[in-house]
């Protein structure tokens, strides 16, 4: 299954290995013409849901590199580490918690590993022109940018607890073993909400449950099959250094149940580390708010939406993507490529509907092949211009999943499509 998804992603322009012409680089990926559309759609829908549709969330776009003190205070310099073991035979290194049965996944030797040692996964960068250069870090989670801006946001906007700060952006981790395609990358994107609440156990439980359900529902509403999703609570020893408790939303991937969003109760860990407090505007009481976090991976969600939507049916492969996520929304074809009047009319229809979303025009090969080509990338609707169009100004609109065709007049076409595409 993974081979098929990886091949489709490459062949159709969703995802390529980074710097592939030079042999690539482990843990880095590029999103092609369809991949960037998909990811942008996903992020736009998330932002609309988390910010625009609510009254209690504002947005932020913080810098990727911050003063390195941020990472000392947040505990990442001392604790953002995985346990690493090295095979004494082939010298490959692995995450200790990912090795099964004490067998080296590279050379097969048994029980020949070094003792586990801590390996910090923050990515270092060096800045400036004078030696020694200033050491800084690419952010290991986008989250700290929110906390260090907490006071700025409270002072410059009208937020009152409970409220949230939403952010989408790149994070970097020097993963010991990147793999499973984009699942474990060294550069990836996160979509996160930090939700600030009164420091109270009941409030904490209430908001933690609320955000768990909200986030699960969001994925189901966007088309991931519920049977392929589950929650998994973290055991005490698995929790990140900042988490009082944590639950993952996991997807049943071809490589096993895998986390793609974490809901974390961070308590007052971060704000207290940064010496930040909040003054209640009514009671004038000063305190350190608690934080409930929802932290989703854009790349992992993209991968799992693709896997979940992938179907092989008789002669076609089809991605049954929610229309809101589909990279190409509509494709327009002349029935026959060699009839000038059909091609000309099809171009007019294409120009009429393009502009609001990605629209394709295709006059290659036969019409059946063109349908299948669009099915494979999840295009929800194909519009065909035929001889009847020339007589009565109607076109056929074919729906991807049912393959049913409907006759629609050109003057109604844009509204018809917008309604179906939920735009
Ligand atoms: N701010 C909390 C935080 O970063 P996390 O559980 O370490 O929590 C959140 O990461 C999400 O970020 C994960 O559920 C996953 O979707 C994504 N993520 C983490 N590491 C990743 C990696 N190496 N490659 C791709 N996505 C990753």
Helices and strands in order:
Layout: H1 2-11, E1 15-17, E2 29-31, H2 33-52, E3 57-60, H3 69-73, H4 76-79, E4 81-86, E5 93-95, E6 117-120, E7 123-127, E8 134-138, H5 144-148, H6 150-156, E9 163-172, E10 187-197, H7 201-221, E11 229-233, E12 245-253, E13 256-267, H8 269-273, E14 278-279, E15 286-287, E16 290-297, H9 298-309, E17 310-313, E18 316-319, E19 330-334, H10 340-353, E20 359-361, H11 367-376, E21 381-385, H12 387-392, E22 394-399, E23 405-409, H13 410-420
Parallel strand pairs: 3-9, 19-20, 19-21
Antiparallel strand pairs: 1-2, 4-5, 4-6, 7-8, 9-10, 10-16, 11-12, 12-13, 13-16, 14-15, 17-18, 21-22, 22-23
Bound molecules: glycyl-adenosine-5'-phosphate.
Verbal overview:
- The chain has 423 residues and is α+β, with helices and mostly antiparallel strands.
- The protein has 3 domains: 2-75 and 122-308, Bira Bifunctional Protein, Domain 2 (BirA Bifunctional Protein, domain 2, 2-Layer Sandwich); 81-120, no CATH class; 330-420, Anticodon-binding domain (Rossmann fold), CATH 3.40.50.800.
- It is 31% helix and 29% strand.
- Strands 3-9-10-16-13-12-11 form a 7-stranded mixed sheet.
- The protein is globular.
- It starts with a helix and ends with a helix.
- The structure holds glycyl-adenosine-5'-phosphate.
- Glycyl-adenosine-5'-phosphate binds at residues 141, 143, 173, 175, 184-185, 188, 190, 192, 259-262, 293, 295-297, 299-300.
Largest sheet: 7 strands, mixed
Q: Write down the CATH class of the largest domain.
A: Alpha Beta
Rounded to an integer in angstroms, the radius of gyration calculated over CA atoms is 25 Å
Number of helices: 13
Distance between the termini: 32 Å
Strand order of the largest sheet: 3-9-10-16-13-12-11
Helix content: 25-40%
User: Uncertain regions: pLDDT < 50 for 5+ in a row?
Assistant: none
CATH topology of the largest domain: BirA Bifunctional Protein, domain 2
The averaged pLDDT comes out at: 95
> Any idea how many domains?
3
Number of strands: 23
Spell out which ligands are present: glycyl-adenosine-5'-phosphate
Superfamily (CATH H level) name of the largest domain: Bira Bifunctional Protein, Domain 2
What is the CATH architecture term of the largest domain?
A: 2-Layer Sandwich
- Overall morphology: globular
Question: What structural class do helix, strand and pairing data support?
Answer: alpha+beta
């Amino acid at each position: 299954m993974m081979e098929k998804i990886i091949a489709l992603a490459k062949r159709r322009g969703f995802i390529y290995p980074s710097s592939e012409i030079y042999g690539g680089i482990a843990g880095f990926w590029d999103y092609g013409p369809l991949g960037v559309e998909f990811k942008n759609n996903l992020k736009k829908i998330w932002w609309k849901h988390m910010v625009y549709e609510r009254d209690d969330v504002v947005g932020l776009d913080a810098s990727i590199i911050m003063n390195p003190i941020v990472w000392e205070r947040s505990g990442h310099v001392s604790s953002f580490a995985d346990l690493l073991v090295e095979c004494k035979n082939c010298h490959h290194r692995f995450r200790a918690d990912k090795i099964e049965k004490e067998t080296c996944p590279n050379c097969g030797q048994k029980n020949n590993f070094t003792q586990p040692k801590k390996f910090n996964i923050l990515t270092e960068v060096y800045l400036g022109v004078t030696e020694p250069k200033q050491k800084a870090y690419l952010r290991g989670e986008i989250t700290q940018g929110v906390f260090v801006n907490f006071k700025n946001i409270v002072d410059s906007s009208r937020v009152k607890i409970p409220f949230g700060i939403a952010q989408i952006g790149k994070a970097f981790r020097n993963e010991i073993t990147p793999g499973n395609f984009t699942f474990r990358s060294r550069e990836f994107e996160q979509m996160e909400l930090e939700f600030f609440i009164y420091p109270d156990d009941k409030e904490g439980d209430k908001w933690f449950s609320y955000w768990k359900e909200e986030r699960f529902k969001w994925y189901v509403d966007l088309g991931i099959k519920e049977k392929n999703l589950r929650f998994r609570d973290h055991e005490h020893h698995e929790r990140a250094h900042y988490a009082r408790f944590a639950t993952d939303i996991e997807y049943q991937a071809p490589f096993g149940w895998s986390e793609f969003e974490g809901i974390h109760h961070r308590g007052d860990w971060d704000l207290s580390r940064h010496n930040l407090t909040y003054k209640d505007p009514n009671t004038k009481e000063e305190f350190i708010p608690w934080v409930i976090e929802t932290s989703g991976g854009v790349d992992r969600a993209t991968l799992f939406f693709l896997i979940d939507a992938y179907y092989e049916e008789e002669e076609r492969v089809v991605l049954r993507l929610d229309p809101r996520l589909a990279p190409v929304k509509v494709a327009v074809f002349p029935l026959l490529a060699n009839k000038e009047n059909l091609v000309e009319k099809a171009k007019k229809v294409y120009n009429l509907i393009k502009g609001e979303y990605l629209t394709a025009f295709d006059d290659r090969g036969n019409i059946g092949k063109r349908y299948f080509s669009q099915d494979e990338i999840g295009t929800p609707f194909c519009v065909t211009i035929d001889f009847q169009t020339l007589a009565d100004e109607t076109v056929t609109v074919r729906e991807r999943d049912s393959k049913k065709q409907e006759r629609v007049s050109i003057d109604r076409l844009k509204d018809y499509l917008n309604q179906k595409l939920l735009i």
